[in-house]
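Example record

The entry below shows one chain as it appears in the dataset: sequence first, then structure tokens.
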Amino acid sequence: MSAILSLKGVVAGYGGGDVLQGVDLELEENSVACIVGPNGAGKSTVLRSISGLLDPRLGAIALDGQRINGRAPAEILAMGISQVPQSNGLFPNLTVKDNVLMGAYIRRRDKAFLHRRYDELAEFFEVLAERGQEKAGNLSGGQRRMVEFARSLMMEPKVVLLDEPSLGLDPKALRMVHESVKRMVERGRSIVLVEQNVRFGLKLADHGIVMESGRVLLDGKAQDVLKNPEMAALYFGGTVKEQLPQVPAVPA
């Protein structure tokens, strides 16, 4: 498979200095890449750099071979990259439908497109069909995450960035997230996933990336990364089998 998204030598940060210290990574087409690592490793900064919320100081980010860093977030969205925020990304007093339509705000005047995409997504996410006119604040955590996923798909992106999608979810909702990510890939999306729940994220992914102090420490097949003894020694103080958190069984 070919890389649909690539980062080469990316250095980026905030007012206090650089968080990313020369990050290289690739996302293959129709696959899931999971980035893990301790707090402060730079995982979310990678996503912000890709989506244009943060402009790297050095390096290059490319989508389908076309450089995207330096472009505005709305332009990057139009080119085919969307992002699901870590948590609390919905407007609780707006309806489910209105929240989802916000994902195509840059095409808000194209009513035919908006209604077509919403109807297509309602076939994919049951909560849109069943509770579209209810306020988003009335939904469960798992249902809210499904609405966030749907919103991210409104512009028919090539790449979806997921920031901690398992955060705060119960076992049932975790299974919903797992199934939805797999179905997105089946329908042609490529996913970059940032996760604190290491076992959940790497079991879901094809490709695993471990970051520490703004650098890529390990990079390879997700299951190889999960089993790597260096993972356990660096982050869990023992063997992977002994120390990694357990998560509920997910669909095959």
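Notes for this example: The two ends are 22 Å apart (CA to CA). The chain is about 40% helix and 25% strand.
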